[in-house]
User: Which sequence fits this backbone?
């Protein structure tokens, strides 16, 4: 009987390695750095290429107690959500790789407030940080420029850079030695184009994380999923401008859905609220990790534990013969 | 592997080396002017080989083999529940689409006193998702030392589910197959899959599968695809055509590797010996089941049933198996968000699912009540639909009138997407008495807009 010959693809391309954070030796104050990317094959196909780094888990903390999070999510963090520094510490204690600090829009939000908040978070955790503005161009620029200055040396990832608003953020990241996160709406060419625009400002490609945007499970996730698979295939086939590590925000997307938010007045077939809500986040994240996500930003502590277990299993030996 | 038109031509009379056959070259009896024209139609699957009365037996076998799909279609059909898996043609859904969603099965043991109750709960489970009713496919009944035959018979009688019989012992398996009497007929073929033939029992299991006409799962040492292919070939040689593969892997990385390789072997290497759907055991781990949905399983067995897990998995399956060329549309009509009253705002958007979800999600998570009028724009987003003339003043006005939304409101104000502000004047003409408001361009700005304008 003829033996089966295992087909192995010979990929010519490789995902870029991007390192977040800086230790004291590197001019920062982080207790360690986190490197993502570097894959030379599709997700977790260990038999035909290298997966040098596991996908990293970032956990979102907000500068103020979130007003729009459902109780099952808030309660999971307890008192920590009352203070962003305590919250960041709780994220580290949970075993996350990165803290995603999200500034929200409110009347006190200005440059001085942003500097002070960043300082407090940096003091509370040794993890590398992602820093998100509130998502309004003028405020984003004000906050992120202040954060870039205040956090000089920390190798933060600043975002998000969108086609309509990226220059100020990229310039601030360049001036103070940080990374940026690009974000484009679920489209391969738009994703590529924004990477080109950002790199045209002389931002090194080793300092850009690419966010191709995702929808939650049931809310358009399959579009993001396929865009990510196409981007990763292009990267492995050698298309340089698609070779950035990918970051997505399944936590934010999943916790916007009715399935995660509604505890009452829903069909019995939806089952237990907390269990359903957590799986909504977990399955959104796990599926996107299978499509090539290098960083996932999550919200619920239990989701973090489950995704951590899955990643450990996927990084294990998958040899077959 | 499918043959090209020219390759097929060589097997037809005009291309034949046999003078008796060659004599019928271009005879037109197939209905096409020449053998070459017929070959081209065959290659495009627009003609049947049977239309040519003169094709040689040997050529016929070659052509039929080439026409067989690289992954065999396996069908289970219990009363009213039909499950088809296999026949996939691509590794990535964006390359074309994934055709046949994997069957989701819940495992019950014959030692469980609540086996029938559990099967009944699986049978009754249905959940609505964008207007579709999603259901599970069946139960996998494990021979664990209880009364296997009685359990199979009881579940067969109580439910309309497809069954997977889990027993590697031929005598027990046969008792299960016999026991599935349903309406007097023995459990044959329909609605039942037998697990599994292994290197030790395969001859007896193949006999059972052939006799009872059920598809048979073939399994070998974990991850040993060579042994699996060899065994599948042996079982096929014993007369069982409908096979399913269980490569024996039970974890994440090993399953991903094995399933990916089986799919690649079948599609890219035309390896017929593994051209069958895959069966996966996900244990008590819905996340692993999620991997199996996205990465190549045809049957998935879960150890536990819970609605809170079934719902997201069924939605995941629906998403991954959505045709990327045909985006999901939502039903046009009026959608109520956060229990709106007559004084609450009325917004309009298109029936492209992503557009609808973007708008509905923003309003919903803001907690503000509102009415969302979804216009049939043939599944296009706002700007695309407007450019294509599918989301114009006339269509919007028609939708306002046909849904009689005005009867549910105490105002006549309609919020249109900022992207189509240009429709303002026309809409005011089409909808006399209505005040048209131009909303924000992006859904994400809706909550703020509503707070400011409707506060």
Assistant:
């Amino acid at each position: 009987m003829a033996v089966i010959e295992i087909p192995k693809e010979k990929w010519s391309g490789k995902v870029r390695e991007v390192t977040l954070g800086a230790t004291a030796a590197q001019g920062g104050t982080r207790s360690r750095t986190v490197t993502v990317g570097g894959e030379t094959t599709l997700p977790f196909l260990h038999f035909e290429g290298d997966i040098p780094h596991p996908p990293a888990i970032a956990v979102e903390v907000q500068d103020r107690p979130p007003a729009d999070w459902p109780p099952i999510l808030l309660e999971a963090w307890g008192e920590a959500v009352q203070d962003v520094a305590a919250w960041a510490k709780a994220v580290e204690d949970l075993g996350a790789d990165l803290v995603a600090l999200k500034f929200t829009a409110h009347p006190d939000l200005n440059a001085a407030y942003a500097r002070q908040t960043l300082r407090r978070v940096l003091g509370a955790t040794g993890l590398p940080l992602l820093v998100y503005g509130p998502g309004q161009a003028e405020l984003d620029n004000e906050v992120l420029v202040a954060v870039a200055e205040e956090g000089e040396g920390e190798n933060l990832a600043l975002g998000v850079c969108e086609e309509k608003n990226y220059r100020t953020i990229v310039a601030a990241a360049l001036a103070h030695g940080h990374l940026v996160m690009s974000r484009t709406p679920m489209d391969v060419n738009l994703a590529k184009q924004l990477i080109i625009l950002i790199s045209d400002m002389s931002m090194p490609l080793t300092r850009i994380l690419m966010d191709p945007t995702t929808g939650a499970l049931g809310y358009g996730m399959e579009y993001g999923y396929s865009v990510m698979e196409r981007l990763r295939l292009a990267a492995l086939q050698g298309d340089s401008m698609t070779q950035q590590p990918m970051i997505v925000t399944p936590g934010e997307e999943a916790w916007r859905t009715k399935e995660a938010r509604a505890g009452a007045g829903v069909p019995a077939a939806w089952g237990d609220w907390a269990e359903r809500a957590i799986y909504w986040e977990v399955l959104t994240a796990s599926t996107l990790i299978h499509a090539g996500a290098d960083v996932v930003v999550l919200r619920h502590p239990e989701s973090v534990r489950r995704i951590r277990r899955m990643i450990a299993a996927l990084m294990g030996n998958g040899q077959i013969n | 592997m499918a043959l090209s038109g020219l390759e097929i031509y060589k097997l037809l009379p005009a291309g034949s080396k046999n003078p008796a056959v060659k004599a019928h070259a271009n005879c037109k009896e197939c209905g096409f002017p020449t053998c070459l024209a017929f070959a081209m139609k065959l290659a495009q699957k627009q003609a049947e080989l049977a239309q040519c009365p003169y094709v040689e037996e040997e050529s016929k076998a070659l052509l039929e083999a080439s026409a067989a799909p690289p992954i065999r279609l396996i069908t289970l059909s219990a009363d009213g529940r039909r499950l088809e898996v296999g026949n996939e043609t691509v590794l990535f859904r964006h390359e074309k689409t994934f055709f046949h969603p994997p069957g989701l099965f819940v495992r019950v043991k014959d030692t469980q006193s609540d086996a029938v109750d559990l099967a009944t709960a699986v049978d009754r489970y249905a959940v609505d998702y964008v207007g579709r009713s999603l259901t599970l496919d069946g139960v996998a009944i494990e021979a664990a030392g209880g009364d296997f035959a009685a359990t199979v018979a009881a579940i067969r009688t109580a439910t309309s589910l497809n069954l997977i019989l889990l027993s590697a012992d031929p005598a027990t398996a046969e008792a299960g197959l016999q026991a599935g009497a349903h309406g007097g007929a023995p459990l044959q073929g329909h609605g039942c899959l037998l697990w599994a033939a292994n290197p030790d029992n395969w001859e007896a299991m193949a006999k059972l599968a052939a006799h009872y006409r059920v598809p048979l799962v073939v399994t070998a040492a974990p991850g040993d695809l060579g042994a699996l292919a060899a065994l599948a070939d042996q079982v096929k040689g014993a007369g069982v055509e409908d096979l399913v593969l269980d490569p024996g892997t039970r974890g994440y990385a090993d399953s991903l590797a094995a399933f990916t390789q089986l799919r690649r072997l079948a599609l890219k290497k035309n390896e017929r010996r593994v051209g069958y759907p895959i069966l996966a055991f996900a244990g008590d781990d819905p996340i692993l089941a999620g991997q199996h949905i996205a990465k190549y399983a045809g049957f998935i067995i879960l150890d536990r049933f819970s609605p809170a897990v079934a719902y997201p998995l069924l939605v995941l399956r629906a998403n991954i198996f959505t045709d990327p060329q045909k985006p999901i549309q939502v039903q046009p009509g009026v959608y109520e968000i956060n229990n709106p009253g007559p004084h609450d705002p009325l917004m309009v958007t298109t029936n492209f699912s992503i557009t609808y979800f973007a708008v509905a999600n923003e309003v919903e998570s803001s907690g503000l009540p509102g009415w969302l009028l979804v216009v049939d724009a043939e599944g296009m987003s706002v700007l695309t639909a407007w450019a294509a003339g599918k989301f114009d003043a006339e269509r919007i006005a028609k939708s306002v009138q046909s849904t009689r939304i005005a009867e549910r409101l105490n105002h006549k104000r309609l919020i249109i997407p900022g992207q189509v502000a240009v429709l303002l004047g026309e809409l005011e003409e089409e909808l006399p008495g209505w005040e048209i408001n131009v909303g924000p361009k992006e859904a994400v700005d809706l909550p703020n807009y509503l707070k400011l304008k409707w506060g």
